[in-house]
Amino acid sequence: MKGAEPLGALAERARELDDDARSLARLLRALRADPRTGARRLAERVAQRLAAIQRERRRVARLFALRRSLARAGAHVVAGVDEVGMGPLAGPVVAAAVVLGDRIDLPGLDDSKKLLAADRVRLDAAIRKQAVAVGVAEIWPDEIARRNLYYAGLEAMRQAVCALGIAPDHVLVDARTIPGIDAAQTPIVGGDARDGSIAAASIVAKVHRDALMVRLDAEYPGYGFAIHKGYATRAHRAALRELGPCAIHRPSFVTVAQLTLFEP
C-alpha cells in the first residue's frame, strides 16, 4: 500500500502505547482501515490489548463501589487504612492511610500480598501521585512489647489516620475498628483484596516497610533483613541462633526468645 506506514513501525507504536487506551483505540481504527494482511493481524492484537485494558478498568472500578456509595451519602473524604508487618520477628509494624482523589487510574491495584515487588513500587508511586493525602505510622518492637501485637497494629492505624493532615468523613479498615478516631468506620474482612482504598493503603504500607528494612540491613548486617524483611525464614532463624537478637528484634515474640536461649 503506497505511502502507508511500515507495519514494523506500527507494531512498535502499539508496543510503546501499551496501556494508553485512547491512543490504542485511534491506532486500531487506522489499522482496520488498512487493507494489508499484516495490518489486520496487528489490529487483532491491539483489539485484544484494548479489551484487556477495559476488563482491568472494570475490575478496579468495582473495588471502589463502596467509596462511590459513601460519596453519594455525603462522605467525600474516604480513607483506606491497613497495616503490614504483624508477623515478622524484627522491625516495626507499619500502617498507612490513603485518601485518593476523584480520578483514579491504578491498573493492577490489588492486595499488596498478591503483587510482585516491582508492581508494588510502581503502584505506590501512582497512588502517592493521585492521593489527596497519605499518612504512614511505625510502631517499633519496644512499643509492640508494651501494647501487645494486636493493639500495636491498632495504634499504628490510628496514628496513620492522624498523619493524613485532613479529617476523613469515613474510614475503611481491613477487618478491624480503629479506636480513638472520630470518623465513621467500616471494617471489611479481607478488605485489602475487596476494597480499592484499603488495597492502596496496604501497598503504601508494604513499600514503606520493605524500604525501611533494606536500610536497616546496612545498620544491622548479618541478619539478611533486606531479603526477608524480618520474617521468620530459615536463614533469619539461623542468623538469630548465631548472632543473637539485635535492637530491632521483637523480644516479646516467643520465636525470638526460643532461638536466643536454646541451641539448635
Topology:
Elements: H1 7-17, H2 21-32, H3 37-63, H4 65-72, E1 78-84, E2 93-100, H5 117-130, E3 131-139, H6 141-147, H7 149-162, E4 170-174, E5 184-188, H8 191-194, H9 196-219, H10 225-228, H11 234-243, H12 254-261
Parallel strand pairs: 1-4, 4-5
Antiparallel strand pairs: 1-2, 2-3
What does this structure look like?
The protein has 264 residues and is of the alpha/beta class. It folds into three domains: 7-63, no CATH class; 65-211, Nucleotidyltransferase, domain 5, CATH 3.30.420; 215-261, no CATH class. It has twelve helices and five strands. The chain has helices spanning 7-17, 21-32, 37-63, 65-72, 117-130, 141-147, 149-162, 191-194, 196-219, 225-228, 234-243, 254-261, and strands spanning 78-84, 93-100, 131-139, 170-174, 184-188. Strands 3-2-1-4-5 form a five-stranded mixed β-sheet, with helices on both faces. Strand 1 and strand 2 (93-100) form a beta hairpin. The longest helix is centred in the N-terminal third of the chain and has 27 residues, at 37-63. It is flat. 38% of the residues are buried. The model has no long low-confidence stretch (mean pLDDT 90).
Outline of this structure?
The chain has three domains: 7-63, no CATH class; 65-211, Ribonuclease H-like superfamily/Ribonuclease H (Nucleotidyltransferase, domain 5), CATH 3.30.420; 215-261, no CATH class. Helix content is 54%, strand content 13%.
